[in-house]
Amino acid sequence: MRHHHDSPGEESDEEADLAPSKSQKKRDMEALQSLGAELVKLSRERLRKMDLPERLLTEVLEAQRLTANGAIRRQKQFIGKLMRDVDAEPIAEQLAAIRGESSAAKAEFHALEHWRERLLENDAAFTEWLDRHPDADVQQMRQLIRNARKEAAESKPPKSSRILFRLLRDATP
Q1: Which class does domain 14-86 fall in?
Q2: For residue 169, which of 122, 114, 101 has the smallest C-alpha distance?
Q3: Among the listed residues 152, 132, 129, 154, the one whose alpha carbon sits nearest the alpha carbon of residue 140
Q4: Which of 19, 24, 150, 161 is 20 to 30 A away from residue 35, measured at CA?
Q5: How confident is residue 24, by pLDDT bands cut at 50, 70 and 90?
Q6: What's the CA dihedral at 104, 108, 113, 115 to 10 degrees?
Q7: Rounded distance between C-alpha atoms, residue 106 and residue 115, angstroms
Q8: Top-level CATH class of 104-171?
Q9: How confident is the model over 59-111, as pLDDT tens digits?
């Protein structure tokens, strides 16, 4: 610990501890670049719905337009640099929500796919589905299952299987 006779130009130990290290600054910059790279992967429509500063949105859309790898890399670095001047927290939160939505959507899709496979494989699954979804249209489902099995057996396009999937999706709240 230094004492009061330090020269005015020197930092105290406490002040030095508060300043981020060079490696911490580099990690922060890489995190911002990573957020920027994630933005570049989003659709234009999704980007426009986000609450992004105009300049950042413009540069992200520009990065999507580029084709040369070097230019894309430089543009992503520039986006990372721009993000130093914006509040990155709300952007990070929005990206996390988008990732969450997509992982939840994937899980739901796989669950419905699994139900469809089970329904096409055995009738016990149909009874189980009806127990869980008493409002289901029994006749329509039976017909679709029959048709889907027939289409599969005859190597025809899975038209009924697709309709069955939509029916299952619509029945799931």
Answers
A1: mainly alpha
A2: 114
A3: 129
A4: 19
A5: confident
A6: 150
A7: 14
A8: mainly alpha
A9: 999 999 998 989 988 999 999 889 888 888 888 888 888 888 778 888 888 89
